[in-house]
Amino acid sequence: MNPPVTAMVEGTNLNRKSKAVRVAMEEDQEAVNLAADWADISQGLRKDLGHQAHSQWIKPIQPGNWCKETGTLDLYLPTEFSANWVNDRFADRLSLAWKIARPDVRHVRILVHPGRRQLPELRLGGGGGRPASAPANDSAAGVADPLSVALAGESFASLGQGPAGIDASQTFTSFVTGTSNVLACNAAQRMAATEQPQFSPLYLKAATGQGKTHLLHAIGHAYLAAHPHARIFYCSAERFMVEFVQALRQNQMIEFKSRLRGFDLLLVDDIQFIIGKASAQEELLYTIDALLQEGKRLVFAADRAPQALDGVEPRLLSRLSMGLVADIQPADIELRRSILENRLGRFASVEVPADVIEFLARTINRNVRELVGGLNKLIAYAQLTGQAVSLQLAEEQLTDILSANRRRITIDEIQRTVCQFYRIDRTEMSSKRRARAVVRPRQVAMYLAKVLTPRSYPEIGRKFGGRDHSTVIHAVRLIEELRTRDADMDGDVRSLLRQLES
After folding, report:
1. 201 pLDDT band (50/70/90 cuts)?
2. Phi-psi region at 253: left, alpha or beta (left = phi > 0; alpha = psi -120 to 50)
3. Which family does the record claim for this protein (predicted)?
4. Which contiguous run of DSSP H or E holds residue 202?
5. Each residue of 229-240: pLDDT tens digit?
């Protein structure tokens, strides 16, 4: 090939590469724009639908393929059940929201994510308990999907990372107990013990991220340790319904019932998702009755009490609540500190100052999952960037988590709590009296107003009988100083902070 032709070919190749790079950059930018638009839409829907509905159905949505020519946008959900649910109930609202945000969107399709995890099916027709081919979890190679697992006749000790579908790290040893969860933990340990428990089923009730799923996994671990050849079934209520519907379609209900009622331990998570499925509820009811008659063990977990499950028939509600309902309350600050300190044991090479632990424990108070996630993120960032963990770094890198956890505390609420604590009349917060028994509580209230609210000094002063901002500054500095040298004052402030932040 002569030089001019070679140069022409090379130029063509460069143009092609340049065009490919440009197209890729445009696609990346479009993906960023879609993500930004979805963040705004999702936030708006959260306000319209409420936190619970948004968290369960809207938050998992991911923007997918976008075709400019047809104006079609695909929204992905992780499972067929959730995609159908959202499509039935929120399709019109989602379509309208996207059309408002992006006028070029003409059609919105709600689909199952093409890369979703394939859940192993129950082998209904004889044979062993494990599925013949359990695909790897996309987040942990070699571990089957945790939503569904059927085990039979397999030694617990022979499984390197614990049974398929049960998280090997979620054991009773790694579960940190406190006053808010000790009943549930003790009941879970009793359910997994060798001797027959005095109650069944066990119903674990807790808000999202408080540890109920951890206890389900821990029960599975401990039960198989005590009964190496036991047969267990661990699934979500959603997965139970999927298996039930598949059995119906394939005319395999007899096999399904026989298989399901042959387990020694039944663990069902997120039972609130069985709402509205009458036939699946009836099958679960019969399964519970059959297993209880044979002395088998059952554990359910949900984000609300049995009586608060809407759309569940009374007979099933009575079965769910006939054993022990163990409530896991939100972790108090002492438990949050213990969880963080326990977690730090896994990061021996990283030094986290005590003030950072105190800051995280006090600020991230919605649920334990966010608390541990915040610590993990902070340590990972420090390790990857070579920075030391500090209070400033925590405030900079955990902005989203911190802002989501800050409860709106009002100055009126602070004044009311302080007056009850010191047993003085509420009018003293605005009065001109200067008796020590009144002045000190008033100064404490001003200090708490500055610490717990975003209000400025002048705004706080106006709430305390129109006092000047310099009076508020003096009160804040005085209480700060008293806390360092007066143990009683520090104890009072700590107690008030616990009351206001709980």
Report:
1. very high
2. alpha
3. Belongs to the DnaA family.
4. strand 202-206
5. 888 888 888 778
235, β-bridge pairs: 148, 268
Residue scoring higher pLDDT (340 or 278):
340
- The 3-state DSSP class for residue 379 equals helix
Please give the C-alpha separations between residue 321 and each of 195, 202, 333, in angstroms, as whole numbers. Answer: 22, 8, 30
Query: What amino acid is encoded at 338 in this protein?
Result: S
| CATH among 3.40.50.2300, 1.10.3720.10, 1.10.1750.10, 2.60.40.10 for 411-501 | 1.10.1750.10
Q: For residue 410, what are the CA distances in angstroms to 417, 455, 496?
A: 11, 9, 14
pTM over 0.70: no
Burial category of 60 from C-beta neighbours within 10 Å (exposed 0-12, middle 13-18, buried 19 and up): middle
Residue 166 to residues 158, 227, 245, 327, Cα–Cα distance (Å)? 14, 16, 24, 22
Domain boundaries, the chain: 23-112, 148-328, 333-405, 411-501
What sections of 345-432 are H helices per DSSP?
A: 354-363, 368-385, 391-397, 399-405, 411-422
Closest CA to 362 of 451, 446, 488, 447: 451
Domain 148-328 architecture: 3-Layer(aba) Sandwich (3.40)
CA-CA-CA-CA torsion for 222, 227, 230, 235, nearest 10 degrees? -10
Residues in binding site:
209, 211-213
Eight-class DSSP state of 140: B
Residue of 419, 407, 486, 479 whose CA lies nearest to 448: 479
pLDDT in tens, 402-434: 776 666 788 999 999 999 999 999 999 999 888
Name the binding residues for ATP: 209, 211-213
For the record, the structure tokens of 62 come out as 């991911």
**Whether the Cβ atoms of residue 370 and residue 209 lie closer than 8 Å to each other:** yes
Query: 486 — alpha (psi -120 to 50), left (phi > 0) or beta?
Result: beta
Q: Are 483 and 493 in contact (CB under 8 A)?
A: yes
Q: Residue 144: its pLDDT value, please?
A: 34
Residue 330 has pLDDT above 60, yes or no: yes
| CATH of 333-405 given 3.40.350.10, 1.10.760.10, 1.10.3430.10, 1.10.8.60 | 1.10.8.60
Which two structure tokens, joined as six digits, stand for 73? 């946008």
The strands making up 297-302's β-sheet, listed across from edge to edge, are: 148-151, 232-236, 265-269, 297-302, 202-206, 324-328
Q: How far is 2 from 373, CA to CA, in rounded Å? A: 62
67's enclosing H/E stretch is: strand 62-67
H helix count then E strand count, the chain: 19, 9
Q: What's the fold here for domain 23-112?
A: GMP Synthetase; Chain A, domain 3 (3.30.300)
